[in-house]
Amino acid sequence: MILKQICVVGAGTMGAGIAQVCAVARYRVTLVDLDPKQLDRAKESINNSLGRFAHKNKLSEPVSTIMARIEYCQELAVCGNADMAIEAVYEDIEVKTGIIQELSQVIDSSAIIGTNTSAISITALAAAAIKPERVIGIHFFNPVPMLKAVEVVRGMETRDDTMDVTTQFITSLGKRPIVVNHDIPGFLLNRINLPSNLEAIRMVEQGVATIEDVDQGVKLAFGRPMGIFELGDLVGLDVTLNACDAIYNETKDPKYLPPVLLRRMVKAGRLGKKTGNGWYAYNADGSKVVPASSATKKD
Length: 299
Ligand SMILES: NC(=O)c1ccc[n+]([C@@H]2O[C@H](COP(=O)([O-])OP(=O)(O)OC[C@H]3O[C@@H](n4cnc5c(N)ncnc54)[C@H](O)[C@@H]3O)[C@@H](O)[C@H]2O)c1
Hints:
By secondary structure, the protein is α/β, with parallel strands linked by helices. The chain folds into two domains: 5-180, NAD(P)-binding Rossmann-like Domain (Rossmann fold, 3-Layer(aba) Sandwich); 189-294, Orthogonal Bundle (N-(1-d-carboxylethyl)-l-norvaline Dehydrogenase, domain 2). 45% of the residues lie in helices and 14% in strands. Strands 3-2-1-4-5-6-7-8 form an eight-stranded mixed β-sheet, with helices on both faces. Helix 6 (160-172) links the parallel strand 7 and strand 8 (176-180). Helix 9 (228-235) packs across helix 10. The longest helix is centred in the N-terminal third of the chain and has 20 residues, at 36-55. The structure holds nicotinamide-adenine-dinucleotide. Nicotinamide-adenine-dinucleotide is lined by residues 9-15, 32-35, 38, 88-91, 95, 99, 116-118, 141-142, 235-236, 239.
């Protein structure tokens, strides 16, 4: 099966990144969002990101050629001609189920529906589709244009050829498919990573260490390019909380029980870079404005 036309639903952080990497890999892309402001923001962020790649001579075509492959739409009906649709809307089972149901009614019966969910069961989402065997988890990591790993997650009904076409598609994007053979809560990489993130939050909550020291420590000791809290702000505190809640609710494993501090931060609307305030505080250009500890001490 040759894929040509990709439809991405949800033009937030992840949807914009997914649309960008598909267009760079020469797929035609339709990016869909209910909110026209999100579509404008996505277009600007894709253009800026491509500009940075062009500046480093990392693109084989002009930015304008790549940008011209992406269409921006508010109606899901435009996905009718897509060979693959990837949903990247809010991490909410009802919203995602509604999108998958609608998508499976408009796209061709041979087309694949991918979901970029962080922690909702692929099998549960696939149950909303007319052809659950064509539904699969395609879990990109943030920032999508930079990070090469993509989990390809098999739901209970996902057919082998759906897995094969999807892993080939991910490879065609210049990324490395990480095959996850069972639809377990949190899949593979978050199952490994989240417990250490939550432990870091607990250490800060208990006053054992500051946010800056944790971040410096993991960068200098473990060679991570970003600190746990820096990355947490990029991912979104709400995204992390939702992922942990989803894994905890299914497994009851206390390793994934979110600390009160994380819940409080999300309640306060401190969601990270996207709200200008999270573990760190940010200027409009994304630079930090105050030390991390003063951002959390206001609680
Ligand atoms: N942020 C991350 O680091 C990250 C990493 C991996 C996976 N994910 C997953 O990717 C998904 C998207 O996350 P995000 O951070 O990009 O979210 P986001 O909040 O940045 O964007 C979500 C977008 O979905 C749109 N939307 C909501 N309902 C819609 C509908 N019915 N039709 C069309 N558009 C709709 C919203 O307008 C918004 O633009 C989530 O499932 C999340 O768990 C996020």
